[in-house]
Design a protein that fits this description.
Blueprint: H1 3-13, H2 17-37, H3 41-50, H4 55-58, H5 67-74, H6 80-88, H7 91-94, H8 101-122, H9 133-140, H10 151-154, H11 164-176, H12 179-182
């Protein structure tokens, strides 16, 4: 499945505009991570685009989140590594272990998008172009800021050999490339 088909599928299954934007941001960050790590950009971007495909169905039952997506996507011939990473982004609730670079990348990549968006929204102009990566890393230390964002998941970037400050820069730049689509 290519990225355009993944986006169409995501838009069919997710009604909420904020969640759609989260998936777009995740795809952008995953593509940037793939470039940085010498992996297949489209495959990783597809994982980012589809990681929350079942969220509307499973939001009240995190013990199923990722599993329903896996069932839907297995029927569409997605690579096993993508399906495994989609499940692994919710590893704690599913009793799974992250194992592959894509598993780690999807978890840290989709999580940092929330912190980048929250950081953007405290700027007076609410524009992603104003956000400095250093502001994102500074906000990491403020537990009350965007409290629902799992800082430990973001720090999984280090499992990929990418320091936090570099990862924040990568995410801000990747999301900046689609700022208009993100409404930022």
């Amino acid at each position: 499945m290519d990225l355009a088909a993944a986006r169409q599928l995501m838009e069919v299954h997710l009604a909420d505009q904020a969640l759609r934007r989260h998936c777009l941001a995740s795809a952008a960050v995953l593509a940037a991570l793939a470039r940085r790590l010498g992996q297949d950009e489209e495959t990783w971007a597809v994982a980012g685009m589809l990681h929350d495909l079942d969220y509307d169905q499973t939001a009240g039952d995190m013990a199923r989140h990722g599993l329903v997506s896996a069932e839907m996507l297995a029927q569409r011939g997605l690579p096993a590594e993508v399906i495994a990473a989609i499940k692994a982004h919710n590893a704690e609730n599913l009793g799974l272990q992250r194992q592959t670079p894509l598993d780690y990348a999807l978890t840290c990549g989709e999580t940092i998008t929330g912190l980048v968006v929250a950081t953007t929204l405290v700027y007076p102009d609410k524009k992603l172009s104003s956000v400095k990566p250093k502001s994102v890393t500074k906000r990491m230390k403020e537990k009350a800021f965007a409290a629902s964002v799992n800082r430990d998941h973001i720090r999984l970037c280090e499992e990929l050999g990418i320091p936090l400050n570099e990862f924040a820069a990568l995410a801000v730049e990747a999301m900046g490339g689609i700022a208009d689509e993100l409404g930022l």
